[in-house]
Task: structure prediction
Amino acid sequence: MSHTKTVVVTGFGPFGEHKVNASSVAVQELKKLNLGDDVSLVTEEMPVIYEDIQEIVPSLWKQHQPILLIHVGVSGIAEAITLEELAHNTGYVQRDIKMKTPDTGCCIDGGPDCIISRLDMGAVCEHINQTNCGIQVVTSKDAGRYLCDFSYYLSLSQDCSCAAFVHVPPLGKPYTAKQLAKGLKMIIQCLLNQVVPNKM
Result:
């Protein structure tokens, strides 16, 4: 019996110098790729606004009950596709596109300082880097204390066994949108191999 697996992938809208956000472009390209007949891909572009993210992230989990949820964001300093291993609760002092920050500077009042994903990001990196696909993947323990880190913390607080965050470099530095989408597809396939035995 075949079960359809729902995978939710989000990108972010424009902010600051990123008038075209590579994360959103990469997610749009991902929609053109076949993730498998048993995978239902849901994509969403999220605004770079703390208040909105606090509502959108929990609603994505509730509405779609995904087997895997991946947030994708752009990092101006990244030179490779970067898998974030954890997210932080405090330190959100950088203003969003509405020039606002969270009232208390944190994601969830009273929440743990950080939440670590139970997905093995190192194993994903190792697998993809061994394929000689021309795309380098690395891990990170600092998602940046901005909307990326913020959204990831909210998702990890929902279910840390099937939430991930991927930072992509800006377009052309060095990857095209198609290459980023290819990298995202490979990451999703690796992560599905980790979560499916636990969820089915």
